Every structure is written in structure tokens, then in C-alpha cells.
Amino acid sequence: MTAKDGRAIARANDVRVLRSLHRLGWARSRDLAALVWRYWAPTATDAPSFRSVTPTSSELRMAQRTLRRLRQKRWVLHATGPDGSVLYALAESGARVLRQAGIAAVTGKDLMRRFSVGHFHHRRMANEIAIRGVVDGFRVSTEREIAQGFWIGGQHGIAGKRPDVLLRSEQEVWWVEVERSRKNAKDYGRLLTWLNAIRKDFMRPSGPELLGGTLRWGKLVFVCTPGFQEKLCRDLAIKGWTTANISGCVSFSRLLYQVQDIIFI
After folding, report:
1. Confidence grade of residue 261 (pLDDT, cut at 50, 70, 90)
2. What is the 3-state secondary structure (H, E, C) of the chain?
3. Alpha carbons within 13 A on the beta-carbon side of 60
4. How far is the C-alpha of 193 from the C-alpha of 195, rounded, in Å?
5. Is 258 contained in some domain?
6. Which residue of 44, 110, 152, 257 could cross-link 169, Cys pair, CB 3.0 to 4.6 Å?
7. Does residue 261 lie in a domain region?
8. pTM of the predicted structure, to 2 decimals
9. Which residues contact residue 4 at a Cβ distance below 8 angstroms, ignoring those fewer than 6 apart?
């Protein structure tokens, strides 16, 4: 490899990491290693997996090397998360690089301000789900993109609600909710009302209308604790949902719901 080839590869890696930060908002080096240096399946061939992608040592080294270079260029910002991990986001100069390439990027400095432990882990899990989806060949709308209105539901959502992550496999839509905290009674009541509206859309003989076009529902997936799952299933049954309704519309995953004790540094 010539020096010129090496510089071209390094530049391509720089841009790929910047684009990933644009999509995710902020990310750890392990997130970027798993997303940028992992092979992506061309299309999804199965239901979504909710097991995080673990980067290899080689992928992690490449990510760390690229991030070190981006920090030297001041194209990224960095901060320490509540668990001690280093988080990266776009600096204004990094966003400018993407804008010059035709991508409407903005700095992530506001995302790096102080946030709660709950918010940190919520975004961490949402990003891990999005990364798994991309690697497995799904078309993914990340939590950051959804918050900006860059997904099929726009700013108003679907039936007035936005997911944490949206996965699409051809015409099938998987709506993902990360339930990191206990909902208050008002928000929980709104969730039940929304689920009733979605169940009706699931069951329409002519196909769903809330998604528009030719899209159809896959599942509503809750990444949650066993306690939340039990409560939601019980309350849906009270609302008239049958066991078949619940299993046909909703699924639950606990794979990412393992948070170690938080260490503040």
C-alpha cells in the first residue's frame, strides 16, 4: 500500500465515523467499531435480533485509531459518560465536513451536556439496537434521526407517537420501545390508548393504514424488565386483548436490559 492509498483509506474511515455520529447522536468507540468496521448484510433475512454487536479487538483498534485522529483534527467532541465510558459526538468542524459532502449535519455539542444516568442508558441501548439492525441488513431509523423527524412518521409520529428505534425489512416495520424507567400513570395510560389504536391497525382486513403505502406491521417490541412485561400484558388483557392479540402484535426482549452498577468519575 502506498502512502497515498493509506491516506485515502484514513479519510474514508474519518467520514464513515462522522456519518455514524451524525446518525447516532453520540457513541462510544465500541459502538463505532461494531458499526463502521463490521460487514453489513445486504438485506435482513429474519426477525430482528436484540443482542448487541460485540466488536473484535481489531475493529476496536481501528475505531480508536480513527477517533484519535478525529480528536486531533477537532472534528469530534468527547466526554465521559456516567459509567466511565468515553462518548463522542460531532464537533462543528466535523459537521461542516459532512455538510460539504451534502449531508445536513449539525454539531452534537448539546447532546454532550450533562444528562441523567437513565437517559444515558436509554440512548445507549437504543444505539445498540440500531447498530444490530444495520449490521443485520435492516433499514434503520435511529433515536437521533427520529427525534429530528427524519423517519417515516416525521415530526408528528404514527398515531401521535414516535418509537425509540424503527427497523424496516422490505415492507415490514418493527417498532422498538426501550423502557428504561417507570412510567407515570398519565404516560402509561397514553401508551395503552396508543396500543389499542395500533392493534386495530394490525387487524384491518385490507391492511394497515397508519403506516401508509404498502408498509405492514411486523411487531411492537418492548426492550424492558420482566416486571414491565408482566404489568403490560396484564393491563392489555384488562383492555380486552386476547393472548393471540398480544403474541401477534407485541414481543419483549430483555437481552440488553442488563445494566451494571454505575461508577461516577
Report:
1. very low
2. CCHHHHHHHHHHHHHHHHHHHHHHCEEEHHHHHHHHCCCCCCCCCCCCCCCCCCCCHHHHHHHHHHHHHHHHHCCEEEEECCCCCEEEEECHHHHHHHHHCCCCCCCCHHHHCCCCHHHHHHHHHHHHHHHHHHHCCCEEECHHHHHCCCCCCCCCCECCECCCEEEEECCEEEEEEECCCCCCHHHHHHHHHHHHHHHHHHCCCCCCCCCCCCCEEEEEEEECCHHHHHHHHHHHHHCCCCHHHHHHHEEEECCCCCCCCCCCC
3. 7
4. 5
5. no
6. 44
7. no
8. 0.92
9. none
> Do residues 78 and 88 lie in contact, with contact meaning Cβ atoms separated by under 8 Å?
yes
CA dihedral over 228, 142, 89, 67, signed as positive or negative: positive
CB 142 within 8 A of CB 23: yes
d(CA 40, CA 53): 12
Grid coordinates given for 92? 462543528
Domain of residue 178: give its range.
3-253
Q: Is the pLDDT of residue 153 over 60?
A: yes
Residue 263, domain member (yes or no): no
**pLDDT value for 262:** 35
CA dihedral over 187, 167, 127, 229, signed as positive or negative: positive
pLDDT tens-digit map of 99-126: 999 999 999 999 988 778 888 999 999 9
The number of domains in the chain is 1
C-alpha 93/C-alpha 91 separation (Å) is 5
* Per-residue pLDDT tens digits for 156-193: 999 999 999 999 998 999 999 998 667 889 999 999 99
pLDDT at 225 exceeding the cut of 50: yes
